[in-house]
Amino acid sequence: MLTLGRIANALCSFIYIALAVRALGLSDFGLLILIHSLASTSSVLSRMQSWQTLIRFGSESFGNGDTDLLHRVIHFCIRLDTLSAMFAIVFGLVGVQIYGHTAHWSAHVRFLADLYMFVSPLMYSGWANGILRMAGKFHLVPIIDSCAALAKTLGVIIGYVLHLKLGYFLFIWAMTIIIDYGFYIHYALDILRRKFSFQYFRAFRHWRWQLPGMWQFTRAASVNQTLGNISGHVATLLVGNGLGPAEAAVFRVCRQIADGIVTPAQLISPVLYPELVRMRDRQDWRGLKRVTWKMFGVLSGLSVALLLLSAFFGSTIFRFLLHVHVHHTSLYISIMLLAAVFSLLVIPLEPLLIVVGHVKFLMKNRTAVMAVYFPALYVLTRHFGLAGACLSTAACNATILLSQMLGVWFFHDRIGKSSER
């Protein structure tokens, strides 16, 4: 189910991107991408990783039916997401004014971007995502994502047939986000109401409550995940600012093709973290290490096959999507796929370091890498164009992978001796 859902989602994305480019033209499609990236950046910057906090501090009470403690943990996570939502809107509106000025957007484009920022809080399902993972209902995720992707595809087809403009396509993107978020909240609340008699609005009592170490874990996990998730959106914005919206569209589509190719392999990530948490709770340290390295070996072999696939078919996919000829697209896609492969190989390593208590290591690691990556990306993009952007992205992901491999090697003998640092 997970595989079919992700594949269907990737196929829908190829269709609606191809039609959106034909309807809007490459430059206006680039504006659509940049506005969406601004909203995504504000969402990622503001979000707390409440689903990780929920699983770490609530999985045991969820399993043994400790309703009171579980309610308190969920309430804490809901409050985190509420604060994140408010900050997302503020960050988004400020970001539009700053970026719109530097990118020389018209007043009309800025107005559309301002309106779009109000859906940025709904880009993150947070605590609801954690409930689905703990309840073993993660098969609902690809169904939800597929419904949203189908709705977006249908909306884009209508826009293509009727020759509608940027405002309409932003509306379709926004409605897709609302649909996706609504499904997550509905299913999570349904699970909690049936099993634990949960009431959502009680979350806004007792704002000061937290378990020992809960806020520290949330802060460290959030910084690490924010730096990991924000890099793609900021990279698109920097390319757009340095080269223009059309080049930003090319860069984003090359990245999306690469991500689409590795999509089936990424299915491991959503189910791996909860499983490692359960192994940690059982003190099964040998099994935890074995699963991690087995997944790393499988993904390494798969990565070689994916790189060969990109070399032969990358430019063909690009021409289908954008309906334009851009020089060196096979090279760009191959480099971006290499970057995606490096990110793919991080999948089994990062959850291992998180569940054994080395979140601070991940946070410091990503902070250092991103502090170098963003300036390097901008400089290389200005001097070498899209090739510089792609190469700097691949180098960034390779550095993160190498540092996490070193981290696992360094902490390997300590796993099982201390699960909290």
UniProtKB/TrEMBL annotation:
Annotated InterPro entries: Poly_Biosynth_Transport (IPR050833)
Alphabetically list the UniProt keywords: Cell membrane, Membrane, Transmembrane, Transmembrane helix
Q: Which segments cross the bilayer? A: 7-23, 29-46, 80-99, 111-128, 140-162, 168-189, 296-318, 330-356, 368-385, 391-411
Question: How does this protein lie in the membrane?
Answer: Multi-pass membrane protein
Which superkingdom?
A: Bacteria
Q: Tell me where it resides.
A: Cell membrane
Q: Can you list the GO cellular component terms from the UniProt entry?
A: plasma membrane
Q: Would you tell me the protein name for this molecule?
A: Teichoic acid transporter
Keyword Cell membrane belongs to the record: yes
